[in-house]
């Protein structure tokens, strides 16, 4: 693919998605209609061949069946053709445009430098055709991405490369200003199938399954009716579906990095490749339940403004690493936060994941917090490094939340009457919509007030330094931020 | 004007501006109406019992329920003036501070560069009293930065001020 450089479009040139796309999107409807009418007509055929005198009074005549099928084909065909015909897209130097809709027309335009993430998704049917869907995410809380479905896989990859190169502000060759090469990818880690199976087996799903099994046995013993087991069947189907979803979804999980950002590949039937450009990760959460503790496995989530809370996709897009050892977690963290702001990041993050106590500069809740938090007070802790705030939580379900200072949206210090009596305070840090809601529970009052003031100042400083959205732009960010600082000082004087 | 309520979590060396005392009136009316409706609803069984339509209704519940409502209304009314006095905001160099609460204290800081947009709203009651509500939005839904009971002129000034500062300090996400 990289041999064929991509060219951004002139304002008057438009492209269409692949003609098969509506069929790939609407195949369920087509199959359903074919199934219903096909079965009817088969039944009619059978009854007419078996029957003595042609179609019975209830069966439709073969001509009518043919007419209905023909009409369905025409209707589907026309609507698919119109859908395809009216969907056009264009990628210019500044914007992505998508026009769609037959009756209710929609024209969408998104600024390329506002891109938060790009996904290339291949559902099973699309894979069979060698097609892929391109999702362009902007920071709208995950409501509506710009979607291009479907394109040839190579075309989708070229578009992705072009958009990311424009967003990054790559220096463009003046001789060929519209030709862009795809950024090379470096492999970081891959999860073996055994790990994915292990993670699925040692999960809360299994705990739930065991509870259901025990409950069914007890119920059977109690009532003596085998019929009671029938009630458990739908639950077991649900559990099976959950296992299936986890295993096929996370299968073949690979993490790679390119100058365009972190790239995640995963999926058994439906494959996805997510690209999160540098600086688009708003917060990271690392978690571990009690079942995974003996294995030393962790799960890594991220907040990305374009993904939102990701309800529609079942939360899979916000997972940066479905199951990984401490070393793998550190490798992934290193991609997201190249600068952890401490000399010994491994020890600090390990202390943040394992606790308890005040090791490695963490500060846990004061002794008075044990009245509210008898088990976890020595585990709830925070540490501010030069670049990020680390919040540690929980004794049984352990979590570490990491928020870079420049991604802080707003801060809150809150205290109820009970906490006031104990001299405690809660510190909340607001990030964009996502699975991570950073908070430090039950801090000592003095520490909380100090953190509130310092964090506001640190966030302000970090914002001035990290003001550039374009991560590969040649402009001297350091110099411009210096300039900003000196301006600030002048204003301050 | 009584002293502003202060709490242990207020940042040091910050002079908070207060909202209008008319907010007390607004809240009295607002909460009063809601309270009276609740009181009327919970008194219906009692009236039915007293008029012997529903004699089986237990007396302790008949008297107790409206009494609880009445006490909570009075309690709320006592708190309102102090709650309103506890609301404060301060414009600092880089961010806006908002404080509130007398029992449940809360101090929030919203950096100007993080503001996505500012809402100024005015309900019918607020309009009568010449008050406005200003609401700051960032990219995070957790930012619940709301200042009630600003005089309309002050709200307009603050909105302009916030927009100008937001423009000057604009950062990405």
From TrEMBL, chain B:
Stretches assigned to coiled coil: none
Q: Which domain of life is it from?
A: Bacteria
Q: Which organism is it from?
A: Arthrobacter glacialis
Record domain YdbS-like PH: where: 85-162
Write the protein's name: YdbS-like PH domain-containing protein
UniProt key word Transmembrane: yes
TM stretches of this protein? 28-48, 60-80
Q: Does the keyword Transmembrane apply?
A: yes
Q: Which UniProt keywords apply?
A: Membrane, Transmembrane, Transmembrane helix
């Amino acid at each position: 693919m990289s041999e064929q450089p991509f060219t951004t479009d002139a304002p008057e040139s438009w492209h269409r998605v692949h003609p098969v796309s509506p069929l790939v999107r609407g195949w369920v409807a087509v199959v359903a209609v074919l199934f219903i009418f096909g079965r009817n007509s088969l039944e009619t055929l059978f009854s007419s061949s078996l029957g003595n005198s042609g179609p019975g009074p209830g069966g439709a005549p073969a001509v009518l069946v043919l007419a209905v099928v023909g009409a369905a084909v025409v209707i589907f065909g026309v609507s698919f053709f119109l859908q395809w015909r009216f969907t056009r897209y264009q990628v210019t130097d500044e914007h992505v445009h998508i026009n769609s809709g037959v009756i209710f027309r929609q024209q969408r335009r998104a600024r390329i430098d506002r891109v938060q993430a790009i996904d290339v998704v291949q559902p099973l049917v699309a894979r069979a055709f060698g097609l892929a869907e391109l999702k362009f995410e902007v920071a709208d809380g995950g409501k509506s991405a710009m979607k291009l479905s479907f394109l040839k896989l190579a075309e989708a990859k070229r578009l992705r490369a072009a958009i990311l190169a424009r967003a990054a502000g790559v220096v463009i060759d003046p001789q060929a200003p519209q030709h862009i090469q795809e950024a090379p990818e470096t492999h970081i880690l891959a999860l073996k199938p055994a790990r994915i199976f292990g993670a699925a087996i040692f999960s809360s799903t299994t705990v739930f399954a065991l509870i259901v099994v025990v409950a069914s046995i007890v119920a059977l013993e109690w009532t003596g009716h085998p019929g009671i087991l029938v009630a458990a069947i739908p639950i077991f189907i649900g559990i099976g579906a959950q296992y299936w979803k986890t295993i096929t979804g996370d299968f073949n999980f690979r993490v790679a990095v390119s100058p365009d950002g972190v790239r995640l590949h995963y999926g058994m039937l439906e494959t996805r490749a997510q690209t999160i450009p540098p600086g688009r990760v708003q917060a990271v959460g690392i978690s571990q339940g009690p079942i995974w503790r003996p294995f030393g496995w962790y799960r890594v989530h991220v907040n990305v403004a374009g993904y939102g809370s990701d309800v529609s996709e079942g939360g899979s897009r916000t997972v940066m690493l479905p199951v990984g050892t401490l070393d793998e977690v550190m490798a992934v963290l290193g991609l997201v936060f190249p600068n952890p702001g401490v000399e010994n990041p491994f020890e600090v993050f390990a202390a943040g994941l394992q606790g308890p106590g005040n090791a490695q500069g963490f500060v846990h809740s004061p002794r008075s917090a044990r009245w509210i938090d008898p088990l976890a007070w020595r585990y709830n802790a925070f540490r501010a490094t030069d670049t990020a705030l680390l919040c540690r939580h929980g004794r049984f379900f352990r979590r570490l939340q990491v928020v870079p200072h420049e991604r802080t949206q707003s801060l809150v210090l809150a205290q109820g009457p009970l906490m006031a009596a104990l001299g405690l305070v809660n510190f909340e840090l607001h990030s964009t919509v996502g699975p991570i809601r950073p908070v430090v529970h039950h801090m000592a009052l003095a520490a909380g007030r100090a953190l509130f003031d310092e964090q506001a100042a640190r966030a302000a400083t970090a914002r001035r330094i990290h003001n550039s959205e374009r991560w590969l732009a040649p402009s001297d960010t350091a110099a411009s931020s210096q300039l900003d600082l000196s301006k600030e000082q002048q204003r301050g004087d | 004007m009584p002293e502003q309520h202060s709490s242990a979590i207020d940042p040091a060396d910050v002079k908070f501006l207060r909202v209008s005392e008319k907010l007390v009136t607004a809240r009295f009316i607002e909460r009063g109406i809601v309270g009276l409706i609740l009181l009327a609803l919970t008194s219906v069984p009692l009236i039915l019992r007293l008029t012997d339509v529903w004699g089986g209704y237990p007396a302790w519940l008949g008297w107790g329920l409206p009494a609880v409502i009445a006490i909570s209304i009075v309690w709320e009314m006592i708190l309102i003036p102090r709650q309103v006095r506890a609301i404060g905001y301060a414009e600092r160099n880089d961010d806006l501070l908002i404080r509130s609460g007398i029992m449940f204290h809360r101090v929030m800081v919203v950096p100007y560069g993080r503001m996505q947009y500012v809402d100024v709203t005015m309900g019918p009651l607020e309009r009568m009293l010449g008050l406005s509500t200003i609401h700051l939005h960032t990219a995070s839904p957790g930012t619940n930065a709301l200042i009630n009971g600003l005089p309309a002129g002050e709200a307009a000034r603050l909105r302009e001020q916030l927009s100008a500062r937001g423009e000057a300090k604009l950062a990405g996400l």
